[in-house]
Amino acid sequence: MSSELTLTILLAGLITFLLRWLPFRYQGDERKPLPPTLQKVLLAIGPAAIAALLTVSLVPMVSTSPLGTKGLGACAALLSIALYKRYFGGIALPTLLGALVFGVAHYFFKF
Amino acid sequence: MKSLFQGVVSSLSIAAGYIPIAFGFALTAMEAGLSPELTLLVSIAVFAGASQFILVALLASGAGIVSTLGTVLMMNARHLFYGPAILPRLKAAGRGLPTPLLAFGLTDEVFATASGHLEKLTPEARETWLLGLEAGAYSAWVGGTLLGVTLGAGMDALPPAVDAALEFILPALFFVLLLEVGVRQWLGTILTTALVSAALMTVLPGYHALVLGMLAGGAFNLLGGRP
What we know:
The complex is a heterodimer.
Chain A: H1 2-27, H2 36-62, H3 69-88, H4 92-109
Helix pairs in contact in A: 3-4
Chain B: H1 2-10, H2 12-31, H3 36-45, H4 49-61, H5 65-75, H6 82-91, H7 99-104, H8 108-117, H9 123-151, H10 160-181, H11 187-200, H12 206-220
Helix pairs in contact in B: 1-9, 2-3, 2-4, 2-9, 2-10, 3-9, 4-5, 8-10, 11-12
């Protein structure tokens, strides 16, 4: 059983690595430039990926009470991040601030 | 070396999120019945947050190897697009580092951070900066898992407010990264992605909605977005 688990984990790692590496390997060939259309799509993939990750991580958290205390807690956390980032910049501290605000909101409103 | 160090420094923002989540992953994995050694192996070999939680849940439920690996494949399919999006910016000064080394650590958060930062670097510095970013992120992830397997067994449950704060760390990090890449200049792409992802989540699993929403946002750029 343990050897089957180990094999499954290693194969999962290999699959994940190949998903990341094969496009690098293919596109690394200078004789195969990407079509302009695809280049335009890929240019936007970064912001799109971040927006999708944010949506997919946030929606399940607040879907049970989007206008209730949990949704408001999330809004307060995001607002605190935006304000901090506007005046002080950075990435780590605004991230932790947002988590802190959400945790404090949870403490007081018990959602 | 300087750009490598700068990459590691840039990874601190990712580490702030990775360490507590990796710690939580270790606790979840051991609660599901995985040994500390296998728990650590998952983080070392897979290095992909959400799919690790799903992987552990499937292993604990006794799911077969084929369905487990198929789920991992579907969940991580979005990583196919990360390399092609990053590579043109790395090509600018020619490439020197082996692609497997650069590709291994290309997680969501590494990709998101690199997307917003690579353009600000000189072309010569980009590869080593990315390597530093990935090394720092990987160390944080494996280190957080190691902390979890070492300390987690003897811990009582965390207070609910702390649990809630940890739950919000990843959404907070993604929001910060979105502000980094610039909301105004990518507004159409962002709104398209968010609306499509949210709508699809009502009928599809999250990882499908994520990939399709992301592609919708990419496709929006064809309609007159940024050149």
